Amino acid sequence: MDTTLIIGKENSGKTMLAANLTGRTPLSANFRGSTVTCEIYSDGNHHFVDTPGILLQSDSQTTQMALAQLQANERVLLVAKSTHLDEDLNDLLPLVAGKQGVVALTFWDKVPGDSGGQAVLERLRAALGVPVIALDARNVNAEERTRLFRALNEAPSLKEKSIPWRIGWQIEPAPGPLDWPFWGPLFASFLLLLPAGLAVWAANSFAALVEPLVRGLLATWVALTQTLPPLLAEMLSGDYGLLTMGPLMFVWSVPTVVLYALLLGFYKASGLAERITATLHPLVRPIGLAGRDLLRVMMGFGCNVPAVISTRACSACTRGPAIAAIAFGSACSYQFGATLAVFAAAGRPWLIWPYMFMLLGSAFLYTRFTSPPEARSALNLLMIERRNFLEWPSPQSIWRDMRLTLGQFFGTALPVFFAITLLASVLNGLGVLDAVSGLLTPVMALFRLPAEAALPVVMASVRKDGLLLFARPELAQLLAPLELLTGVYLGGVLLPCLVTALTIAREQSPRLALRLMLRQAAAAVVFSIVLAWAGPLFQVLKLAFAR
Predict the structure, then answer these.
(1) 190-210 per-position pLDDT tens digit
(2) What does the pLDDT read at residue 380?
(3) The whole model's pTM is what?
(4) Which residues of 314-338 are buried (b: 16+ CB within 10 A; e: fewer)?
(5) Fewest CB within a 10 Å sphere: which of 153, 269, 417, 460?
C-alpha cells in the first residue's frame, strides 16, 4: 500500500483534504517512538498519515514530533494555503527538500479570478519541478482526486528550498465584529463561554426529565442488592455504588460531554474557534497563556482528559500554565453538572453566576501567579495564527473533531470513573471515609463550614460528582448561600480529579503532577478562605463606617 506523509501548517486544510481523498474517517495512531497521535486515512490503495500542524515559531511537542517524522523513504504531500503562498511555501519547502512529493494548494476558491492564478500555477510547477495542484480541500471532485493520486504515483523529488520570486498576494478575510477594538473581545468572550452554557443547560434540562425514570427502573435492582454481602452491596448500591452513581454519569455527564463536543466541533470546523482565540490573544498573554491555549481550557468544560492531552500543541513555555488553568478552572461535565444540581436542590439556582465569576476569576489569577516569566514576557509574542476564513462546516468535518473528544472520554475517563466508584465504595464500607472526614472537621472551621461539609469536600477532591453530597436535604438546608457557595467552590478546585491527575502525570511526569496538585491545593485554600470570610468582613466594615 502506498504511504504518503501529509505536511503543512495548522488550519491549512490537511485533515479535510485527507478525508475527502479517501472518503474515510480516520484511525488514531501514535507517531513511531512517541505518544503524539496522528490520523491515518486509507481507502485500501492509498495510505495518508496526517501529521499535526506545524507552527514554525512554536516549540510545541506536536511540531517537534511532526518534524522528526520526516523520513527520506516516505512520500510527502505538502499542503500550503493559497491565501498565503509566499509565507507557507518558503517556510515549508526547506523541510521537505530531497523527498518525493506533490504540492497541494488549498483555499484556491479564495483566490480572485483576476489575480492571474493559472499563470502562477504554471510558474510554480516549472520552478519547483513537481506537480502543483490547486483545489478546495472541502470539495474535492473526482477529477481532482484522480489527478492528485496520479501525481503522487509519479512524484519526483522536491529539490527547491524556496520559490525564486514573490507571488505577491496575501488574502485576508474581511473584518467582522470580532475585530472591533472594544466590542470584539467582549463578543469573543461571550462566544467562548457560549458552548459550555448551552451544553450544560440543554443536557441538564434533558437529565432532569430522564433521571427519575432511570432511578425508577433501577429501584428493583437496588432492592435486590440488599440481600448480598455488606461490602458487595455497598459497591453496587451504597452511597458511591455503581447503581447509585452510574445514572449521574450517564444521565447528567454524558449528554453534557456529547453536546459540548458537538458545539466545539462546529466552532473548530467552521474556523470560528481560531478567530475567537486570535481576538483574545492580547488579553490573555499577560497572564502567561496564548490565545490558542484558551481553546484547550474551554475543552475542559466537556472533559479535562482530552483538554490536557490537546496541550501537546501548546508552546513549551505556555503548556504548563495551560494545564494548570484546565486543572483549576475548567469545570468538567461532572463538576458543572453536579454544581448545578446542588444549587437547584438547595433552592438557590442563581448561585451559579457568582460561582462562575469566582471560578474563572480565581483561575486567571492562579495562572498569572504560577506561570513562568518567559510566558508573560512582552518580548515573547507567543505563536498566534492569522485570522481564518469562516466556513459553514459539513457534518463530516464536525464529526471528525468530535471523535477525539468522545473517544478519550469514553476510552479513558469512563473506565477510571468505574474504578474510582468501586474504590470509594470499599473505603466507605470500611469506614475510612468517615474517619478522614472526622479528621478534617476542625479544618472546616477555617472556611466557616460545618463538620458535615467535610465528606463532600473529600469526595469531590477524588471525583467531582462527589459534590452531589452537598445536595443531601439535611446539608443543603443547613448551609447559608455563602457557605454553600464556599463549600462547592472548595470541593471543586481543591484538587484536580483523579482522572485528570493521572492524565497530567502521564503527559508530563508524576513529580510535576504532584507539584501541580500541591500548588493548586494551596491556592484553593487561600481563595476559599477569602470567599468564606468576605461576607462577614463586609458586614464588619459596613458597621464600622456606619458609626
Answers:
(1) 998 888 778 777 877 887 788
(2) 56
(3) 0.74
(4) bbebbbbbbbbbbbbbbbbbbbbbb
(5) 153
Residue 375: C-alpha distances to residues 109, 192, 319, 321 (Å): 38, 22, 10, 9
Which cell goes with 362?
A: 480565581
Domain 2-153: CATH class, spelled out: alpha beta
- Specify the range with the lowest mean pLDDT, choosing from 41-50, 80-89, 405-414, 428-437: 405-414
Would you kindly state where each structural domain of the chain is located, as residue ranges? 2-153, 183-382+399-536
Biggest CA pair distance of the chain = 90
CA atoms within 13 A on the CB side of 286: 3
Q: Which residue has the cell 458487595?
A: 232
Q: What is the CA radius of gyration of the chain?
A: 26
- What is the bridge-based pairing of β-strands 75-81 and 101-106? parallel
The pairing of beta strand 27-30 with beta strand 132-134: unpaired
- Which set of grid coordinates corresponds to residue 371? 506561570
pLDDT tens for residues 367-401?
999 988 877 776 655 445 566 788 888 787 788 77
223-253 as b/e, with b when 16 or more CB fall inside 10 Å?
A: eebeeeeeeebbbbbbbbbbbbbbbbbebbb
Residue 510 CB neighbour total at 10 angstroms:
12
